[in-house]
């Protein structure tokens, strides 16, 4: 019975350790002198951030094809329906669709090949808000895009030099108007 109990405890701790080392937190801060409504897929939906506010978004382990972008010029009613001048996602505050161009995108896939997170910035869909994406540990590369056609971002789909990696379990900071 002791062996069975020990094995159960071991596998429980292993499962918890595996989950926590792969999940990531994205702290999204608006430093712009205007309101930004960040949106996140496939988790997170959307939120309003005035200058200086931060939204902490916990992204589950194994998330692939994640996107975060800023929306501008938004107006929503009490039920979360409305529209945005840039980055609109079907007229709702809590996005379930990608944003309409132009959108500066932060893209990520967590715990992929060799236990790495992959991340990038993209202006393929256009540029709307200056953005910086920085891993908070691991000595990984910080990406900054202050204007259209910025050198740190994807400009065309097959630009394989723009994807970066960091060990799984890394947390990230995304800043609008860094």
UniProtKB/TrEMBL annotation:
Source domain of life is: Eukaryota
Q: Does the keyword DNA repair apply?
A: no
> Which InterPro entries does the UniProt entry name for this protein?
Osmotin/thaumatin-like_sf, Thaumatin, Thaumatin_CS
Show the Pfam families listed in the entry.
Answer: Thaumatin (PF00314)
Q: Where is the signal peptide?
A: 1-23
- SS bond partners: 74-84, 89-95, 150-166
Family assignment?
A: Belongs to the thaumatin family.
Name of protein: Thaumatin-like protein
The species is Acacia crassicarpa (northern wattle)
